[in-house]
Specification:
By secondary structure, the chain is of the alpha+beta class. The chain has helices at about 1-5, 25, 30-50; strands at about 10-15, 55-60, 60-65, 70, 70-75.
Length: about 80
C-alpha cells in the first residue's frame, strides 16, 4: 500500500477524525461497547498511520458546530518528516 500510494504523490491529505470531535459531556461515563465505539470512531483514521509507522501531522483548520477544533491530517512516506 505504501509503495503504491506514494509512487504517485508526496503527501496524503485525509480527515483526522471521521466525525466531529465529541464534547467531554458526551464521552464522560461511557462504558462497555459504547466506550469501544467512541474510541474506535476517534482513532479510526489515525490508527492505521501509526500502525504503518508513517509520519503524520494534524493541522487545525476551523471549528465544528459544537465549537471544538477540526482539521485534516497530512501523511507522508517513511522519513518524510521534513516535508510535512
Amino acid at each position: 500500500f505504501i509503495a503504491s500510494a506514494f509512487s504517485v504523490t508526496d503527501i496524503l491529505l485525509t480527515p483526522a477524525l471521521r466525525a466531529p470531535l465529541p464534547t467531554r459531556q458526551l464521552t464522560t461515563g461511557l462504558q462497555g461497547q459504547d466506550y469501544i465505539d467512541m474510541v474506535t470512531a476517534l482513532t479510526q483514521n489515525t490508527k492505521i498511520v501509526n500502525y504503518l509507522g508513517l509520519p503524520a501531522i494534524t493541522l487545525p483548520c476551523g471549528f465544528t458546530d459544537n465549537g471544538l477544533p477540526a482539521g485534516p491530517q497530512l501523511i507522508g512516506p517513511t522519513l518524510s518528516e521534513p516535508n510535512l
